[in-house]
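Lecture notes, part 5. Sequence design as translation. It can be helpful to think of inverse folding as translation between two languages: the language of shapes and the language of residues. The source text, in structure tokens, appears below.
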């Protein structure tokens, strides 16, 4: 049987004070692999769930990034910042009295659903080949355009003026700092984010995350999760030997929709995706169901896993 390259993902509880890149570098050192990448940046201020993919699983980063996220964030009223959080240049806003809990709660529905959001000046968005944060550090005001983002839920978990805490469930591309900034603007007093914890990315919750400092050259293997977990929300098709041959040639795999009870038959704008797995549950490919739903068209194939499945008894 051919030897498969190391692949999988880590669900890490990122500590405060380091970058997401530093987590990637440490896991690259431990695993002795250059193919390591994270799925969704956390700023140095932030803690919590950070997904890091290893080996061929790095090809799944974009799918991991698209998973919904959940956060706990704390803010302080009566202040503004050039970074929209407490790490930047903070200015106190004269406003007496500060808004109360009811004032804040009345605003929350305005920031739920699909909303238009301007990213922070200190963000990784590229403008003319330069990152917005690089322009901001040079004293330039980046012309950032509002973008649609989706906030699934916004709950006030605590309020003790001038501080408050929000639980936020949102889609990819949402800036939590911007939510606090805009709430503060609408309240007329400003608000800056003082802490942020990501408690979940899709099914990867904080209670599943491992502390970075707990990993060493031996224990990291026990923390490595299977790539198929990234697509656990997709309908799953177990491939037959014939299917394996078709995948190896990049050809569509016939599908009986009735064999996938979890398949959503409602029409969508994009072709539904399917996880194609071996009998042992290893991810072989990610495919799409084009119009007609007669066969799964492979879009992302893992040749090493496919070859291992073809020679397995």
């Amino acid at each position: 049987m051919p030897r498969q390259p190391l692949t999988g993902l880590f669900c890490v509880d990122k500590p405060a004070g380091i970058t997401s890149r530093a987590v990637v570098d440490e896991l690259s050192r431990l695993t002795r692999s250059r193919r390591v990448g994270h799925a969704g940046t956390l700023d140095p201020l932030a803690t919590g769930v950070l997904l890091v993919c290893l080996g061929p699983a790095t090809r799944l980063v974009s799918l991991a990034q698209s998973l919904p996220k959940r956060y706990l964030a704390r803010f302080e009223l009566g202040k503004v910042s050039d970074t929209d959080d407490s790490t930047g240049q903070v200015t106190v806003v004269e406003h007496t009295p500060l808004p109360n809990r009811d004032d804040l709660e009345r605003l929350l529905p305005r920031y739920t659903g699909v909303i238009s959001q301007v990213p922070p000046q200190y963000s990784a968005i590229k403008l003319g080949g330069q990152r917005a944060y690089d322009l901001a550090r040079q004293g330039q005001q980046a012309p950032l355009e509002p973008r649609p983002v989706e906030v699934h839920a916004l709950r006030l978990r605590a309020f003790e003026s001038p501080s408050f805490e929000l639980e936020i469930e949102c889609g990819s591309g949402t800036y939590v700092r911007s939510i606090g900034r805009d709430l503060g603007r609408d309240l007329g007093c400003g608000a800056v984010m003082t802490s942020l914890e990501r408690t979940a990315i899709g099914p990867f919750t904080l209670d599943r995350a491992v502390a970075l400092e707990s990993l060493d050259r031996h224990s990291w293997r026990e923390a490595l999760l299977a790539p198929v977990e990234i697509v656990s929300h997709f309908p799953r098709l177990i491939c037959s030997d014939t299917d394996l041959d078709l995948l190896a040639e990049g050809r569509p795999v016939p599908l009986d929709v009735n064999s996938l009870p979890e398949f959503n038959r409602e029409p969508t704008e994009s072709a539904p995706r399917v996880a194609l797995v071996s009998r042992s549950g290893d991810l072989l490919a990610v495919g799409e169901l084009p119009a007609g739903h007669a066969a799964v068209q492979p879009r992302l194939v893992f040749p090493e896993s496919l070859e291992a499945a073809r020679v397995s008894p």
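The translated text above is only one of many valid answers, since several sequences can fold into similar shapes. Helices lie at 20-31, 61-65, 101-107, 132-137, 176-187, 220-223, 241-248, 303-311.
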